[in-house]
Amino acid sequence: MFPQRGEFSLPHRATLAQRWENLQRIGRIPAEASTRSGEAGSATSGFAANLLGGNLGVMTAGSALRQMLPGDHAACRALWERDPAIGLSDADSECAIAAYLERNPGGSFVAVVGDEVVGTILCGHDGRRGYIHHLYVAPGHRMLGLGRQLVEAGLDYFGREGLGKCHLFIFGTNEPGKHFWRRVGFVQRDDLDVFSFSLSDSAPC
Ligand SMILES: CC(C)(COP(=O)(O)OP(=O)(O)OC[C@H]1O[C@@H](n2cnc3c(N)ncnc32)[C@H](O)[C@@H]1OP(=O)(O)O)[C@@H](O)C(=O)NCCC(=O)NCCS
Description:
By secondary structure, the chain is of the alpha+beta class. It folds into 2 domains: 15-58, no CATH class; 62-183, 3-Layer(aba) Sandwich (Aminopeptidase), CATH 3.40.630. The chain is built from 7 helices and 5 strands, in the order αααβααβββαβα. The chain has helices at 16-25, 40-44, 47-52, 73-80, 94-103, 146-160, 175-183, and strands at residues 63-67, 109-113, 116-125, 130-137, 166-168. Strand 3 and strand 4 form a beta hairpin. Coenzyme A is lined by residues 12-14, 18, 22, 83, 85-86, 135-137, 142-148, 168, 170, 174, 176-177, 179-180, 183-184. Residues 12-14, 18, 22, 83, 85-86, 135-137, 142-148, 168, 170, 174, 176-177, 179-180, 183-184 line the site of coenzyme A (COA).
């Protein structure tokens, strides 16, 4: 029986205290700020409480996930271009992404704060296995659980599609990225290498 929506959760979900420590470690909350109830509101003047949303289920105050739309391409591409961890190719043109979304309806998501896209994930499958591409969270919104939430949305999609497994590609040098995937329960394969073949030098559309 394949998991259906909401029937699984990724391991190691951080407690409020752990998430607070993460934020202090990356300097988004002053080291001296306290998490003790009653002090949190005043000690942080609502700043960290805002970041945490006052609730582990809310990642960045005001953030939400929604389906990625073809019209999100420019905003997503601008994020992807910021980081060499995201490998871009002719498969990332506006028309290629629109074709991908049409071929894999309901599998790709953006995280938004207001109108601003701050996170992305592309999920698609070939009827046999799922594939995750372009998981990205903007630097100012990291370590708050947004990446995990995007992955959970993708896994929900794969579950609904009746898939039993998914894979992703990651640059061998992306150690922080590998750390993330391990933290959310993905297993690194040491028995596989990737081979590619280019059918065309020109963009698909
Ligand atoms: C990888 C990335 C998506 C993580 O997003 P995020 O929103 O910061 O991740 P989360 O806050 O959901 O973190 C989930 C877990 O991973 C851990 N984690 C996240 N980034 C980490 C890092 N750089 N180093 C160590 N641990 C990390 C968190 O501590 C957390 O663990 P916990 O819940 O047990 O405390 C983000 O750093 C990013 O966009 N990186 C650049 C693009 C990239 O490398 N994408 C992956 C390519 S395959």
